[in-house]
């Protein structure tokens, strides 16, 4: 166990600031185009995957008695990322639309790199912030999500995904044998609608209409409209197109991670519309050292679902027998997911072993695969 005094130290927190090292790569891609367009994705994906191969896994758990007040240096990087991301997105729009050294395809390449950062960093930080009770942090999450036009993710994640992970109610839980590309199209539609239904059901329990001012979708729409208008003001219609393109890339990054996190894992149906509680074995873990720095411990996903309010520096990892482990970090597994036959070859045997280890009493998984058990009621 890592003692609380060490967890609280600046030295221990610094590795989680690696996202700052990716920013110069966007600047280089916008300045030079051509080969430099590879730098942001190479830094975000391949560099830390390679470092995982060198540094291996980190099975040390931080002391849970560490005080929240002692986690300042971990919080700061998530707090300052909003102004950094705003400057990155709109500064690059201003620069690219005002220059003539890049072709149209190169401009898209630059904003592919911007989307890689706003997705693999910005949305990950927003995810951490939206789980906190502090209003300042939740507002930072809303503003970050607005810059990628995915504000409803907060509702969908908190009101649908966490309560119903591993059931058919949760569209984000990737189904056994479901390829990523089919999954991505499905969640783009089901995520928005399930978020809307969750909020309107919540309002109905207070005898409020769906379009009541208390519905956070008003805030989501206003923030996203403001983000899009700013793109037009900075770069005209071309700027708006580039802004939308980076948002699509960022959303793709998010959903690629979502796909990896729960593929094929289901909660046991208990009858009468009830499912077993969420346990650590209902998420795929990847406690690889370098990519855990990059994704601020999101890869310790089993503990995140077990204790959703726990801040990222205190997330625990588990022995393989308690939580299923992925062979690589999330970045590498995302690329395996891009090739469905390869993904099934890597992951399906692991899912079958998981079933045998945790549910030897279930001999027929057909009803789970076909979604024949009823979806749980929204709370």
Automatic annotation (TrEMBL):
Alphabetic keyword roster: Cell inner membrane, Cell membrane, Iron, Membrane, Metal-binding, Monooxygenase, Oxidoreductase, Transmembrane, Transmembrane helix
Keyword tRNA processing: no
Bilayer-spanning residue ranges: 12-30, 36-55, 76-96, 108-126, 227-252, 326-343
CDD domains named among the record's database cross-references: Alkane-hydroxylase (cd03512)
Protein's UniProt keywords contain Oxidoreductase: yes
Topology relative to the membrane: Multi-pass membrane protein
Occurrences of domain Fatty acid desaturase (ranges): 110-334
Subcellular location field: Cell inner membrane
Family classification: Belongs to the fatty acid desaturase type 1 family. AlkB subfamily.
Protein name: Alkane 1-monooxygenase
Species the sequence originates in: Sinisalibacter aestuarii
């Amino acid at each position: 166990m890592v003692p609380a005094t060490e967890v609280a130290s600046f030295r221990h927190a610094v590795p989680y600031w690696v996202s700052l090292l990716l920013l110069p790569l966007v600047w280089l891609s916008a300045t030079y185009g051509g080969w430099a367009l590879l730098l942001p994705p190479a830094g975000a994906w391949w560099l830390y995957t390679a470092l995982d191969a060198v540094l291996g896994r980190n099975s040390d758990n931080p002391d849970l008695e560490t005080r929240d007040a002692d986690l300042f240096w971990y919080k700061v990087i998530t707090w300052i990322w909003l102004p950094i991301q705003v400057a990155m997105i709109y500064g690059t729009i201003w620069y690219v639309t005002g220059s003539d050294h890049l072709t149209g395809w190169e401009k898209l390449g630059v904003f592919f790199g911007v989307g890689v950062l706003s997705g693999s960093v910005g949305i990950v930080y927003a995810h951490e912030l939206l789980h906190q009770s502090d209003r300042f942090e939740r507002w930072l999450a809303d503003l970050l999500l607005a810059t990628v036009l995915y504000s409803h993710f907060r509702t969908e994640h908190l009101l649908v995904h966490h309560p119903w992970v591993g059931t058919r109610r949760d569209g984000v839980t990737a189904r056994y044998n479901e390829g990523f590309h089919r999954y991505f199209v499905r969640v783009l539609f089901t995520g928005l609608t399930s978020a809307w239904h969750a909020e309107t059901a919540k309002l109905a329990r207070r005898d409020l209409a769906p379009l009541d001012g208390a519905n956070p979708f008003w805030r989501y729409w206003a923030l996203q409209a403001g983000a899009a208008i700013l793109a037009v003001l900075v770069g005209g219609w071309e700027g708006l197109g580039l802004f939308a393109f980076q948002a699509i890339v960022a959303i793709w990054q998010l959903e690629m991670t979502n796909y990896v996190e729960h593929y094929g894992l289901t909660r046991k149906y208990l009858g009468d519309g009830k499912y077993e509680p969420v346990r650590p074995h209902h998420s795929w873990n990847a406690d690889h050292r370098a990519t855990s720095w990059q994704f601020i411990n999101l890869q310790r996903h089993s503990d995140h679902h077990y204790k959703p309010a726990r801040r990222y520096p205190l997330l625990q990892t588990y022995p393989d027998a308690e939580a299923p482990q992925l062979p690589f970090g999330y970045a590498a597994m995302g690329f395996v997911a891009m090739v469905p036959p390869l993904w099934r070859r890597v992951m399906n045997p692991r899912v079958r072993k998981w079933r045998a280890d945790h549910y030897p009493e279930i001999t027929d998984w057909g009803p789970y695969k076909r979604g024949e058990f009823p979806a749980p009621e929204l709370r």
